[in-house]
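Reminder to self: tokens first, then the designed residues, so the page reads top to bottom the way the pipeline ran.
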């Protein structure tokens, strides 16, 4: 397949290539932003190009970046100006919380090639009229935080950040906000609460952050991997970006994190629309000798269970595609003791539930009790009904998407491997 090894996110990632600001500028970095400053292109032009690209949010939801920026732009134009000019009129937030176990794509991007992410934040902030932007960073990423601080300083000294950027009247500060290790704080409204110094619990929506986000101002929240694509799209064009995938519903490439009995473990950039079988063969180097796969979990601990019969289906964000989520793919071996996996999921979600709403607070607790019981042998038929009830309730009545993430593993087992957990 012709596009297979096209890399736009992981280009030039290797220990011997330093990826400095000088390299980035030499390769045309900041040229889209320069075009905005020189009025060669307008905010409208940029938003239109991004809309046309079809770029979907890589934080899991797959929501169109162009639509989000358009909505925030419209709200920021109509929002009342602060009478105190030092306050930011709007905010731009890069979501680097990444608390999902086994997921480290955003950290890898920020450590290996932070410049396009920062350029995207600067472009987005210019469009919104934001004076302040945040990178909400996983609190465990200490090394990343210190590297990012150096990069932000480097960019500021080169005149791309700070006061009167490149001689214009646009000024911007980018702050790194280190989270305290809560999975729920990756949810955009909980994240906003956390920056405001409140409990990290999701807010009721609407209003959405594009209308009323951080400190009640129009706010864009985008994932690191979503943003890293922005300068590429603006330089190479929306139509080129759309051709990079193997899908009619999902566009561009995606970082996949492969885990399990394969030869090349870890991070691989591949076109969206690729199947699990293709990933294993073309990127993972094939399965280890004599290994058989029972199922794959796609999208981390909150991801869905995919049986081998579906391993040829495309991965992406479309209706007919397997939801790719964060891109973490765990290949679970045939001989796995299922109760150990169920126990790991249930313990994790029980611990991470913020406890704000009853279905999730009580549901994760009940599921953790059932997981505990499963350690001592299979469950009874009546308990299967109880599990189904909990899944039904948590999926429909939880206040935020955490509730449905927390039951996805259980749901997959109940639907496909009932006899492994029920007498
Ligand atoms: C429980 C929960 C955890 C989340 N964690 C993250 C996260 O770590 N990183 C992230 O980018 N998005 C996370 N999200 C999704 C965000 O709410 C939001 O949709 C995303 O940051 C928007 O960026 P995008 O449009 O670029 O994907 C999470 C959502 C939920 C419900
Ligand atoms: S679903 Fe869970 S994480 Fe989300 S608000 Fe309710 S208790 Fe909190």
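Designed residues (423 positions):
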């Amino acid at each position: 397949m012709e596009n297979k090894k096209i890399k736009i996110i992981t280009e030039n990632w290797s220990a011997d290539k330093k990826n400095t600001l000088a390299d980035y500028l030499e390769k045309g970095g900041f040229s889209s932003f320069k075009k905005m400053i020189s009025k060669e292109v307008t905010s409208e032009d940029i938003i239109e190009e991004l809309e046309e690209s079809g770029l979907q949010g890589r934080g899991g939801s797959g929501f169109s970046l162009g639509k989000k920026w358009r909505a925030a732009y419209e709200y920021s134009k109509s929002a009342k100006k602060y009478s105190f000019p030092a306050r930011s009129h709007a905010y731009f937030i890069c979501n680097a919380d990444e608390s999902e176990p086994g997921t480290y794509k955003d950290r890898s991007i920020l450590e290996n090639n932070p410049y396009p992410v920062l350029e995207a934040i600067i472009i987005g902030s210019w469009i919104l009229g934001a004076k302040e932007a945040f990178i909400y960073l996983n609190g465990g990423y200490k090394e990343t935080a210190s590297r990012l601080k150096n990069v932000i300083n480097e960019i500021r000294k080169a005149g791309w950040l700070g006061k009167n950027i490149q001689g214009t009247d646009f000024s911007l500060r980018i702050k790194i906000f280190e989270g305290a290790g809560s999975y729920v704080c990756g949810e955009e409204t909980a994240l906003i609460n956390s920056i405001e110094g409140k409990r990290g619990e999701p807010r009721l929506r609407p209003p959405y952050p594009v209308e009323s986000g951080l400190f009640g101002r129009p706010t864009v929240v985008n994932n690191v991997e979503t943003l890293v694509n922005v300068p590429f799209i603006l330089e190479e064009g929306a139509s080129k970006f759309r051709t990079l995938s193997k899908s009619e519903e999902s566009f561009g490439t995606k970082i996949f994190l492969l885990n399990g009995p394969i030869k090349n473990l870890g991070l691989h950039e591949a076109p969206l629309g690729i199947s699990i079988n293709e990933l294993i063969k073309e990127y993972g180097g094939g399965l280890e000798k004599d290994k058989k796969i029972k199922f794959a979990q796609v999208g981390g601990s909150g991801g869905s269970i995919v049986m081998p019969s579906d391993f040829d289906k495309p991965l992406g964000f479309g209706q007919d595609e397997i939801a790719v989520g964060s891109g973490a793919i765990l290949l679970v071996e045939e001989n796995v003791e299922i109760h150990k996996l169920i126990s790991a999921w249930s313990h994790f979600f029980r611990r991470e539930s913020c406890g704000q709403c009853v279905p999730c607070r009580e549901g994760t607790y009940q599921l953790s009790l059932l997981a505990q019981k499963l350690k001592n042998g299979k469950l009874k038929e009546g308990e299967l009904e109880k599990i189904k009830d909990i899944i039904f309730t948590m999926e429909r009545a939880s206040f935020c998407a955490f509730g449905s993430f927390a039951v996805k593993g259980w749901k997959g087992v109940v639907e496909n491997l009932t006899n492994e957990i029920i007498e």
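Residues 21-239 form a domain with the Rossmann fold fold (CATH 3.40.50.11540).
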